[in-house]
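Sequence in, structure out. Go.
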Amino acid sequence: MRGVFYLFSGIGSRSRNGFGSFNVLNSTEVFSMFDNNYIGIKKFITQTHPQSYSAFTQGTKVFKAKASYDTWDEALADVGKTYRGIRVGDKKVNEDVFEPKHQFDKRQYLGAPLEPYQERFKSFLERHAKPYFMKVAKEGNKYRSYILYLPSQYCIGLEKDRNGRQINHSTANSEFLKICNEFNGFLAQHMETII
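Output:
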């Protein structure tokens, strides 16, 4: 468990975005847990169905940057550029995008709240914690970025969405899972899929 905590957690705010990463000085055991096809992580996947919170369940994915860098900020910039595809639909800003500019059907599920300048647009939820965790890890004298995807159900316990409409949880969960799977495919084009 210590290895998973070290590799995919952070301290303080915005830790899911790779901030607050820390380094364990004697990290040999941390990376040895990833030998043999990452069995160390797979042993935590005990649930078959997504929970009401992000958890190690069937469908958990780990993505690893293809390149390592001399500094942590270069590694964070690398994963940040890939991940920006869900927040920015403008090809002038990010070469490869998950959803085109001025479309928010997918991005609202992975990046709420969205507050675009369109007059009548409001995302489905006021705020929603994304099921993705970015991390920069030190490997020898280099730094490499990772993204962990922990499946979850969507907006369990809420009766109405941001616009005051009744939430159909079955529909919302299905749409959320579909979009997460699409985004996992988007990540797999740019990163190495570990599990």
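Check: The mean pLDDT is 75. The chain has one domain: 46-193.
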